[in-house]
């Protein structure tokens, strides 16, 4: 019997990239989590930047770069998928957080397809831990959207209308992905633990379970389910999110 991890790596990953970049792209097929520059997405950060707690998730060191163990990636991704499936079947609510440029589009696309909430521009401090303030902002956002849709803003003095339109644009940028949230999420999926540390700490404080994409410079102990993989490669991020 072929182990799940082997099937996942040799089958799913390769077939995914065959469809997205072409079967003849040898570099991508050799390194299924390929970076944009053609190097492997299993590549982590430089050995000087690594977190020793990531040692169990690293398979080798090559030219000063740590290599992520893709077998462990497959194992933890499978566990994460089981958790997501079970939680979704029970009507739980998800939030995906990934604000860096390389992750933003993939985060929004995956969240919209899955009909879950997302933050892909900037995590506003206290967004979860100070939920009452976030609720107030969301209500103002909803009210402004209704007024704009009804054409009320166009009937205001130009100065007042301009102020409200700027406010609406600000809300759309930073709260657009959570405009339908009515309470705290049940599970948060985080892309790049380092970049989203504030969001992660808020989840830890509130006891909200997290699924984190972790690179070799991250702390796996801070995530309920860590998924070791390259968190800088667009293809790697997209693949993880699509699978989840």
Automatic annotation (TrEMBL):
Keywords: Ribonucleoprotein, Ribosomal protein. It holds the Pfam family Ribosomal_S2. It comes from the Eukaryota. InterPro entries: Ribosomal_uS2, Ribosomal_uS2_bac/mit/plastid, Ribosomal_uS2_CS, Ribosomal_uS2_flav_dom_sf. The keyword Ribonucleoprotein applies. GO terms for cellular component: mitochondrial small ribosomal subunit; plastid. GO terms for molecular function: structural constituent of ribosome. It is found in: Plastid. GO terms for biological process: translation. Gene3D superfamilies: Glucose-6-phosphate isomerase like protein, domain 1, Helix hairpin bin. NCBIfam families: rpsB_bact (TIGR01011). Belongs to the universal ribosomal protein uS2 family. HAMAP family: Ribosomal_uS2_B. This is Small ribosomal subunit protein uS2c.
């Amino acid at each position: 019997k072929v182990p799940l991890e082997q099937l996942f790596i040799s089958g799913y990953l390769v077939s995914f990239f065959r469809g997205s970049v072409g079967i003849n792209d040898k570099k991508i097929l050799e390194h299924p989590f390929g970076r944009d520059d053609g190097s492997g997405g299993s590549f982590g950060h430089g050995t000087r930047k690594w977190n020793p707690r990531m040692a169990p998730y690293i398979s080798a060191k090559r030219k000063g770069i740590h290599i992520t163990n893709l077998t462990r990636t497959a194992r933890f991704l499978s566990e994460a998928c089981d958790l997501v499936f079970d939680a979704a079947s029970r009507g739980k609510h998800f939030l995906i957080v990934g604000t860096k440029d390389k992750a933003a589009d993939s985060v929004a696309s995956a969240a919209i397809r899955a009909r879950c909430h997302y933050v892909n521009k900037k995590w506003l401090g206290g967004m979860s831990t100070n939920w009452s303030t976030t609720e107030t902002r969301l209500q103002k956002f909803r009210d402004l959207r209704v007024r704009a849709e009804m054409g009320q803003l166009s009937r205001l003095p130009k100065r007042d209308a301009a102020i409200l339109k700027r406010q609406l644009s600000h809300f759309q940028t930073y709260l657009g992905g959570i405009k339908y949230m009515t309470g705290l999420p049940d599970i948060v999926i985080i892309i790049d633990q380092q970049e989203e540390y504030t969001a992660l700490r808020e989840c830890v404080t509130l006891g909200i379970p997290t699924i984190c994409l972790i690179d070799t410079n991250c702390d796996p102990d801070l995530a309920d389910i860590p998924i070791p993989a390259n968190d800088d490669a667009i293809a790697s991020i997209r693949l993880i999110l699509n699978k989840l």
